[in-house]
Amino acid sequence: MADLIVHIVVPIAIFTFIAAFTLFAVYAERKIAGFVQDRLGPMETGKYGLVQTIADILKLLQKEFITPSAADKILFSIAPVVIFGAVFVGFSVIPWAPDFIPANTHTGLFFIMAVVSIDAIGILMAGWGSNNKYALLGSVRAIAQMVSYEIPVGLSLIAAVMITQTLNLNDIAYLQGINSPENIYFMGFWDVTHIGGIFAWHIFQAPHLLVVYVIFFIASLAECNRAPFDIPEAESELIGGFHTEYGGIKFAFLFLAEYAMMFLVAILGVVLFLGAWNTPLPNIGSLRLADWTTGLGWGITWTILKSFTIVGIQMWIRWTLPRFRADQLMTLCWKVLIPLAFVCLAISGLWRIMVML
Amino acid sequence: MTIDLLLFYAFAAMAIGSALLLVNIRNTARALFLLFIVLFAMAGLYLFALADFIAITQILVYVGGVLILLIFAFMLSNKELLHDLQSVSHRFITIPRWQALIISGAFLSVMLYSVISWSQTMPEWIESAQMAGTVISPSDNNIQALGFRFMTQYVLPFEIISIFLMMALIGAAHLSRKEQHT
Q1: Which end of chain B, N or C, is less surrounded by CB atoms within 10 Å?
Q2: What's the confidence (pLDDT) of residue B93?
Q3: Do residues A139 and A218 both lie within one domain?
Q4: Most distant pair of Cα atoms in chain B: their distance
């Protein structure tokens, strides 16, 4: 029975976190947009506009359910649930702190890749169900983009996994800090197993993993349809893409899914490349900074801090760069990122055989 | 009744129910999305057979790839053709479908035979595996064992499949190439 309660409490806790994160992130996004565009952003509701997003969500929740008369009613109403569900399930294998993980499976990373691809079906469902040209065009563009960019994401993840030799995200996290069961070498020559900190993170364990992380970051931006890859939404041409017809709580769910996806790819990048819950502070002689800042509370703090930093960078990029053209998007994916990812994959294999053994 | 058993029957009911609905529904778009539910429920059933790798691959390949391809094919196909497909006879069994009747009858008899014969005695290979202790448990690292097998015992089939995929990829690239106007 206790097991059952855990299985109910954990998803609710994660959902609450995602909802709170979305409220916070929308506010942060508007403030960052304001800063980049040299204006103030929301200022009216509450001190510095702090309760603006709460007012927004209250407005969305009170709205009437509107289904277009020509829409496919069932697909139209299921789509937001499928989209959000796909992203939400992905959180089940993410480690937050040492051994503090909802589902400690041996196939964690593979599982995330699979469930995130369900997202694409949901988007297609929304686009088709709306029975609207713009929505359908937006969803077709979204699928073309997501399917293409799944390849560089997958290849960059494989390049990292070849170094870790495990798909278990909990084990991957352990391999990047002072609690590591194996020896860690900074760039392959300096033993940092007992020093830990920032030097033990995966991006510094092999020089090419830095490149791999950049590939992963760019491709994951495209996976969650964020600017500069927001061609599916393209307000100026497609008036919002696949969620044109959505309003009220259904739109709130789509919005929640978008921000949850942003956080999911950010935390996935953190777990795989940026040391997961491991501290960035190294042990310096008798100053055991890494030993002091490792543990349950510290782990959660570091995970969230690092992920929020990455989400912040995603927002910064969104408001700085203009949108890509569709052909530029595909050129970047197929002619730049994928060949580069393949080269990194080959280097990973050689690195594992030549340097790590 | 334990939670596992309940989940198993829920997945099984979902798979069978949506598969039956899938073959009877007249709206092709909805049928394709029902196929998604069938494939998803099948992946759930694979989990109960301790085949977690197969389950995830099923979702990744069929839901993330094949199904999207099917939906695109549906969207790009001719409206008249789809209309013909949707306006077939209402009756469940018609003369043009007698081949289907034979196939389904054959499958039913195979399944009935296996259910009847297996419910009385355990198959010999299961008993011998239990004796020898070569059974997997839910906490085993299946994916690692699978990887070792792929790279040692089954390396030839594995490589042949990769060559096949390579051929398909090259073929697709060739077909989608622009025609040379000379």
Answers
A1: C
A2: 54
A3: yes
A4: 72
